[in-house]
Design goal:
With about 425 residues, the protein is α+β, with helices and mostly antiparallel strands. The chain has helices at about 20-30, 80-90, 105-110, 150-155, 185-190, 195, 295-305, 305-310, 350-360, 375-380, 385-395, 405-414; strands at about 1-5, 10, 15, 35, 50-55, 65, 70-75, 90-95, 125-135, 140-145, 160-170, 170, 175-185, 200-205, 215-220, 240, 265, 285-290, 315-320, 335-345, 365. Strands 13, 14, 15, 16, 17, 18, 19, 20 and 21 form a nine-stranded antiparallel sheet that branches. Strands 6-7-11-9-10 form a five-stranded antiparallel sheet. The structure holds flavin-adenine dinucleotide.
Length: about 425
Amino acid sequence: MRSNWSGTVDFPQAWEVPATIPDVQEAVRAQDRVLAIGTAHSFSPLAVSPGVHIGTQGLPPTVEACSDHGTALVSAGMRYADLGPALHARGLALAAMASLPHISVGGAIATGTHGSGDLIGTLSSAVRALEIVTADGDLRWIRRGIDADFAGWVVALGALGVVTRLELAVEPTYDVAQTVLLGLDLDVVEAEFDAVFAAATSVSVFTRWRPEPDAQLWLKRRVDREGPWGGSPDFGARPHGGSMHPLEELDPVHCTPQGGVPGPWFERLPHFRAEFTPSSGDEIQAEYLLPRAHAVEGIRRVRGLAARITPLLHVTEIRTMCADDLWLSPAEGRDTVGIHFTWHKDKRIYDVLPAIEEALLPLGARPHWGKVTVAAPAQIVSAYPRFDDFARLVQDTDPAGKFRSDTVASLLRA
Ligand SMILES: Cc1cc2nc3c(=O)[nH]c(=O)nc-3n(C[C@H](O)[C@H](O)[C@H](O)COP(=O)(O)OP(=O)(O)OC[C@H]3O[C@@H](n4cnc5c(N)ncnc54)[C@H](O)[C@@H]3O)c2cc1C
């Protein structure tokens, strides 16, 4: 049976992989229940549905620069691993990448996937327009600035149709130099949070929440704007001469080049190389997206649970992103900080998640759409001020529930 990347969610339904956009339209018209699926990297049961899965990876891998608009037209079924080099070859770049390039553009955007950077939005925030096959099999373009409800169509969890192509904001290609520092103290992260995350275009802090100062600080600096890290500030940590995996016992060959060596954005912004397994492979992930104003309090609260977390944890990653206006985006309406957990595949994590969520959800945390949570649908919905507008959009465009996954159905009932 097909399953998600981590083997934790089964997909018993049929799976069609159309080769053309008209074939997608035909597949949508032919079925009562369907749901788009990308590379199935989500840990949450978001793609569980009675509907036939429509895979997008068979669609033509379009990459066309629209230089007048500062955008590129790209296929939703492409992986960022293929899109990155194709854009670079055209002299173009994206502002953000997730930790891994293995995921599809359509799946990343539908779930508000993000990288890190105080001035960088989620991957979804790069969308300027999207082409979508709606419930009646029609093909529509939805454009920012033209369609009044554009902000509801982007992070849409597959509930509005099958996205086939997108126009993404692009900029001239650039190089990034990546440096890893070891021995960072979480007390320093709390005390100097803004300075730590301003130390590079894209910053990640990896920690296992142990009491000793052993966090990793990953600095990804744009060479054109900042130059490589020059030795300070170091926040009391020490630069690592070689290469590190965020899971310190694993081989860093899986990781993109470090050591301050400049290279193109798509080979530095993701932590993991496309040709290797990202992260551990044997894992379950959870993540909470907090209003930045509450990030330090969130870190303090999680540190208070360290004795229960650390034995079950591969690693935590803390990242930042700037606010956007997309109704179901984790960063909707507020600058945001993600506190992420890569867990061992161990059922006991479900004994700890309630305590973490009890600590973080009252601070306004939103669970990542693509990762696991124990929050009730009503709690999740209440974290999104525009959820009622989204529910109305779903009802208006798909009244019969053709694209309704089990998760979306439970959110609409909440
Ligand atoms: C090792 C690992 C590392 C990760 N790192 C990060 C990270 O750094 N940052 C982060 O934010 N997340 C991260 N994630 C989570 C990941 O980005 C999301 O789960 C993302 O949705 C995966 O994309 P996908 O193509 O696999 O989507 P899928 O899991 O296939 O689908 C997810 C959802 O998107 C919908 N969808 C997919 N394609 C389309 C389409 N064409 N049209 C309409 N709806 C569509 C599906 O219906 C489903 O609801 C990571 C996951 C893994 C496994």
